[in-house]
Amino acid sequence: MSVLHVAVFKWKPGTTAGAVQSLADALDELKVQAVGLISYQHGADLGVRDGTFDYGVVAEFDSAEQIGRYLDHPLHQELVATYIAPILEERRAVQIQSAPWGP
What we know:
Layout: E1 3-11, H1 17-33, E2 37-44, E3 55-61, H2 64-72, H3 74-84, E4 88-97
Antiparallel strand pairs: 1-3, 1-4, 2-3
């Protein structure tokens, strides 16, 4: 079974669409280089419910150890410092075991 890393972000007031697009582009680049990555999705909240965060990332890995390697990797750390930290108000994350879909 694989494991999922789910992170959600709330941006500071005044965050521009351009800053979010730059982050999205950087995340697309990062996913190409991530070791042990099975699947990777990210995007802005759809706005269909109140009380949600602004952006989310879901990364699926072979093992829990791969999550640590991904989060601690210098390319990920650089992405956080360059694109996320300047616009970040709040972040939450969870790592869960992925189960097969269906009966």
